Structures are given as structure tokens and as C-alpha cells.
Amino acid sequence: MAPTAGIESENPYEETTEVPGAAARVPRHAHSRSYLMCPPTYFDVVYAINDWMRPEEPVDRDRAMSQWSALADTYRRLGHEVLTIDPVEGLPDMVFVTDSGLVVDGVALGARYRSAERRAEAEHVFRWFSDNGLIRPTLPRYVNEGEGDFLVVGDVILAGTGFRSDPRSHAEASAHLGRPVITLNLVNPRYYHLNTALGVLDDSTIAYLPAAFSPDSRALLEQMYPDAVIAAETDTDWLGLNLVSDGANVVLPVQASHLADQLSARGYEPVPVDYSEFLKSGGGIKCSTLELRGFRRLRIAEDQG
Q1: Can you tell me the distance from the alpha carbon of 298 to that of 215, in angstroms, rounded to the nearest whole number?
Q2: Model-level pTM?
Q3: pLDDT over 70 at 37, yes or no
């Protein structure tokens, strides 16, 4: 399905997506974004730190690179900026760069991985933050797996815990980034990061899988987002909620067709891509995409002196 929604730059203008029926009454506004990505040059599955990983199953690295390149090209075609960090040999999961930090209003918080296998990734991404002018880059004291467990919805940060990020990292992130952080408890190890069970569609709308959360967290999500899109496991089996949205265009796995239909009915424009090779490591589209919120404004301010 070809993307049709307009893009809003940081010097705003607006175009809206129109769809037939009731959903056409809900305008969706696209905003241009800056994304950090890491090529899967050394992508492999050589250990198992989540329920998806099968080291005995071989990885087709050429196919992975082709799918990754198609994802990056999709972002550029939608009007977004794609920056890259160099991959490092011996770090096969570095392609999943979103787990290595969180950037809000140009302020950068690094990551601290729970597993020793991924620990060095955070150091390389933190160095990229420092070298590229992000504000107050800081490494956390507590385990914090970046946008794997921290998702920005408007002025609020939803934060997952239960399998990876330490709940104490939530207050730490709030203090550093100056945003309220809402704790959500994950209960199904298949959805080990928040971004496998919840996707952000715009500043006030999410999609999520209720079964991935504790009863208290489900009740909180129902209260905060009564109009949320409720996903089915037939889509989350393909990491359908591990999506990236600019507010109108939603990049998601091509296999998540039911979720795509739900999004279309709400006035969003699904942009399906095949990212299936990365499922062998339990990673998806959002895993490979770290949003650099405010990065473009920092460069404009720097250029203006």
C-alpha cells in the first residue's frame, strides 16, 4: 500500500489523510522525524536472551541487509531523516539501536543493558550522542533499555518493566528528561520489551495487546487511552506493534494485516514492509529505529550561531 499522508516539517504545515466512511472525519497529521539506525552488517543469533531467539537457526545476512535497507528507504520516502551509526563486529544485536537510548527535546539518556551480551552496545551509542551535539548525554545508574522500554506519547513517557528495565530507572528518566513517566508492568516473557506490546500512533493514541500487561497496567491503559487500537496476537506474533508512526503513516510488518486494517479504519495510512529476518532475534521495525526528538532543532540553532 503506497503512503499518501503528507509530512509536517519542524516549520509546520499540514496535510491530512482522508479515508472513506466515519474514519474520514478524523484527520491525521504527519510530522517529519529524525531516526538513528545501525546497518545489520554483523547481525546474527549467537545467544538466546529472549523467547524468540534460536541460535541454531541460521541467519541470512544478505536478506537482513536488504530488508533493513528497504526500511531506511521507506523512512526517506516518507520525508524523514535517517542517520546511521557504524556497526561493531562482535555486537550482533547492535542493529536494534532503539534499545540503546532515549532522546526527548534534544536531551539524551543512554542505556544500561541487563544482559552482558549487549552491554557494549550502549557505550557506542552514548558516544554517538556525545559526538553529535545532543544535550546532557547521561548514562543511567539503573538498568534501562532505552526505547525498548520507554515510549513517548505526547508529553508523557510510558515505561515498561518486568523483564528488562529496572523500575527505579523510571524516576531516573523522568528527572533527566523532564517528563512524567508512567510505569507499566509486563507479564508475558514473549513481550519482553514495552515496544513489543505497545505502539505509539500519535501524541494521544496508542495500539497495544492487553494480555501482555498486568491487570493494574491494563486498567491504567484503558483509563488513559480509551480510544486505543486493541491488537490481536495474530499480529503480535509478527511483532506488529513494534511499529513506527509519524502521526499519519504507520510503518509496520507486512504480515500484520489485521492491525493494518484497524489502522486504516482509524484514518492512518499503513505502510507495510517485510522485516521478517529479524524475528529470528526477537527484533522488529521499532527495535531498529531510535527517534532523535529535537535533533533537527539543535542543528538549526547551531547553524544560526
Answers
A1: 41
A2: 0.91
A3: yes
